[in-house]
Each structure stands twice: as structure tokens, then as C-alpha cells.
Design a protein that fits this description.
The chain is an alpha/beta fold. It folds into two domains: 251 residues, Aminopeptidase, CATH 3.40.630; 109 residues, no CATH class. 49% of the residues lie in helices and 17% in strands. Helix 1 packs across helix 8 and helix 3 packs parallel to helix 6. The two termini are 32 Å apart.
Length: 403
């Protein structure tokens, strides 16, 4: 059966509870695997177990940081602030490792549940390089306070107009943890004095207030509901399926194409982390390219230039250059660029030294309407954006294949 992208999106969006490790995610993965086999890909389902609930993981980080900060009020005996400094350092490093996906500490003590990635390959014995197209299968969980579309779009518009950038919601949390760590060290070194207490109380108050906001936000998400996730990110899955169908009809000369449908992206890219653990050691960094499709159902197509929750890392100059060249040649003159201050599945290979890029769809305010809301349904999408993003990715793949 030929790939009808809207039909594929509608089918998978109908699976309820498609959150990370939830029954709907497994159902969607099984459906995707069967469709990939029908299309003609050599398909495998790769299971793993992870702690999927990032909101409870980060709730734990913020709660522990607040409690450790409060404990530094007792500067006698002297070992208390030093011990809390060590605890806060551990929490901060754990949070940083989780955000960068480089390692996971506190997350690893939280219960794990089964999930899966779906991997399909179009083999090519003459291949000089491997091109991996990807998107995530799962859908987000949202609360009643967080992910307010009207407020979020106003914030996105403000950052675009004032800074030509996007807001980074995680960095203030990390900085608040660092602030409490500094307070603990100062109180250990200077355990008394009006000046010490005045300064540290001010810093601790600001940092604790920031962490309390984060704590409430993570709790709100934790008790929330899963959304349909049509644009985010079944649009990307459908785009990848269509790419595979076209490559099978007109094979690549010099490249092997692989399609990975990641599970657990909404748990901070844990499916991509598991993929890299399994396959990263076997991939050639010079000749492996990751092209990720993310939320390509609204607005205008953009190609990313950089990404990161903490350090903003530039995407592959080679892939960015190809996208820029396609724009400048006139074939995709309407597409724009985007700096990602959150995380997509492309960030996981990126921080591990691989060549990666993500293609998006955004409106004029650098925003995806209905993002992480119950209104992210197939009927609220613009499939023409999905088609255009797929065409850009296809053109990039063809350019890579010429090298």
C-alpha cells in the first residue's frame, strides 16, 4: 500500500496513550514496523527499558536541590554546608548530564519501563556513507498550567523580535542549582556574619523561587494528559515513510538509507540515547549523517543551525551548507533557519560528534501552533508543510548521495 502521509498520521494519532513507554506508543511502533516492511524496508524493532517520565525525574532534581539549600542554613557543625555542597554538586551534575543526554544519574534510580525504536534499512552494498532519517513515535504529556499556547506564542514572538532567538526554559533551572551550590560553599567557608547572611539569603531566595516555579511546573505536567501528537511528531514519521518509499522507487547510488522511528523522545530523547548506545560504536562519524524531521505540520519549513538545552552546539556545517545551497539555488527560496534552545533527537548524535540536523515547521513567531496541546490533531495540520519538509530532506539526501 502506497504511503499517504495524512492517512498515516490519522491512523497513528488515533492510538490512545501514545506517551513514552505507554500502550499507545507500542501500538504505534508495531503499526509502523508493519508498514515499513510493506513498503520494502528491512525492519527490526529494538526494545529497551528506560525511565520515561522526565517531569518526575526533574521534579526529583529540583525538590532535592531546594531541600539541600534549606539544610545549608545550619552552618554548625561545619560539615553540614560542606555536605550539602557535595549533594548540590551531584544534583547539578546529574541535571546537566540529563539535559545534554551524555549520562544519567538520578534518572537511573527511578523505575524503568519497556519501550522500543523501529529501524528500517534500504541496503546498498556499494554505499560509501549512511544517511539516517528519523522522527519520534511518541506524544507529549501536558498539564493545565504548562504549555499554554497563547502565552507560549507571545514569549516566542518576544524572543524572536528582541533577541532573534528562542527562550531556553531549562538553563534558569540549572543556574538556580549552581546558585544554591555557591551559597553552600560560601556558608561553609564563612559560617557567620551579617554580610554573609544578607548576600546568601538574597541569592538563595532568588534561586529557590526559580526552582519552586520549576517544581510546580513539572508536577503539573506529571498529573496531566497525553496529547494526540499529530504534528509533534507523526508529521515527521509520515515524512520519513514517504522518503523511504521514494528512495526505494529511485535508489541511491552511493548511500545506504536508514529510517529510525524513535520511542521516548518526549522523555528527553531517551530512544535516541538507546539507539546510540546500541549502534554508535559501529557508525563512522565521517560518513554517517542524521537528518531529523520534527513538527513539520504548520507554518513554513525551517532548517536548524544549532541546538542545545545548555550549550548551543552548531549543527553539521556540511548539512547546513547543503540546506543553504538548496535555498539559494531557488528551489526552496521560502525556507528559513532556526536555533533550537530545547532538544530534538538530532541532539543525541550531535553531542556525540556525528553530523546531524533537524528540519522543522514554524509560523512567523517561531512557534508551532497547538504545540503540546490536545488540539494537536490531524485536522489542525497543514499537510502541505509536511510535503515541503519531506521534499527538502529528499533534496538534501540526493545532494549527499552525489558526494
Amino acid at each position: 500500500m502506497a504511503v499517504d502521509m495524512m492517512e498515516e498520521i490519522e491512523t497513528m494519532a488515533a492510538f490512545p496513550l501514545r506517551g513514552p513507554t505507554k500502550p499507545g506508543e507500542k501500538q504505534a511502533a508495531e503499526y509502523l514496523a508493519s508498514r515499513m516492511k510493506e513498503i520494502g524496508l528491512e525492519t527490526t524493532v529494538e526494545p529497551y527499558k528506560i525511565s520515561p517520565h522526565y517531569y518526575w525525574v526533574y521534579f526529583t532534581h529540583t525538590l532535592l536541590a531546594i531541600l539541600a539549600g534549606v539544610a545549608t542554613i545550619w552552618t554548625r557543625p561545619a560539615w553540614i554546608p560542606w555536605l550539602m555542597a557535595a549533594v548540590l554538586a551531584f544534583i547539578t551534575v546529574s541535571f546537566w548530564g540529563d539535559l545534554t543526554t551524555k549520562f544519567h544519574l538520578i534518572r537511573n534510580i527511578i523505575p524503568r519501563y519497556p519501550s522500543q525504536n523501529v529501524v528500517g534499512v534500504i541496503p546498498n552494498e556499494k554505499a560509501k556513507r549512511r544517511i539516517i532519517v528519523s522522527a519520534h513515535i511518541d506524544a507529549a504529556k501536558v498539564g493545565s498550567l504548562v504549555f499554554n499556547p497563547d502565552l507560549d506564542e507571545k514569549v516566542a514572538k518576544f524572543y524572536k523580535e528582541k533577541f532573534d532567538s528562542t527562550p531556553n526554559v531549562m538553563m534558569p533551572i540549572l543556574l538556580s542549582m549552581v546558585g544554591l551550590l555557591v551559597v553552600a560553599v560560601v556558608r561553609a567557608i564563612v559560617p557567620s556574619g551579617v554580610a554573609m547572611w544578607t548576600v546568601t539569603w538574597i541569592v538563595q531566595g532568588i534561586c529557590t523561587a526559580g526552582l519552586l516555579v520549576a517544581l510546580v511546573s513539572f508536577f503539573d505536567i506529571g498529573i496531566g494528559v497525553y496529547v494526540p501528537g499529530a504534528c509533534d511528531n507523526l508529521s515527521g514519521i509520515a515524512g520519513c515513510m514517504s522518503i523511504c518509499e521514494r528512495i526505494l522507487a529511485e535508489p541511491l547510488a552511493n548511500s545506504e538509507l536508514e529510517f529510525v522511528g524513535f520511542g521516548c523522545e518526549e522523555s528527553i530523547m531517551m530512544g535516541a540515547v538507546q539507539y546510540m548506545k546500541k549502534h554508535g560504536g559501529d557508525l563512522d562519524k565521517e560518513n554517517t549523517y542524521f537528518i531529523n524531521l520534527e513538527s513539520i505540520g504548520y507554518g513554513t519549513v525551517r532548517y536548524g543551525t544549532s541546538e542545545g538545552f545548555v550549550r548551543v552546539r552548531p549543527y553539521s556545517s556540511e548539512l547546513v551548507g547543503i540546506a543553504r545551497g538548496l535555498k539559494e539555488s531557488g528551489g526552496f527560496d521560502e525556507i528559513g533557519t532556526y536555533e533550537v534552545r530545547l532538544g530534538t533527537d538530532a541532539m543525541v548524535p550531535l553531542v556525540r560528534g556525528f553530523k546531524a540536523i533537524t528540519i522543522f515547521g514554524f509560523n512567523e513567531n517561531n512557534f508551532v501552533p497547538n504545540y503540546h496541546t490536545p488540539q494537536d490533531t490531524p485536522e489542525n495540520m497543514d499537510i502541505r508543510v509536511t510535503e515541503r519538509a519531506r521534499d527538502l530532506a529528499m533534496a538534501m539526501i540526493r545532494e549527499l548521495d552525489k558526494k
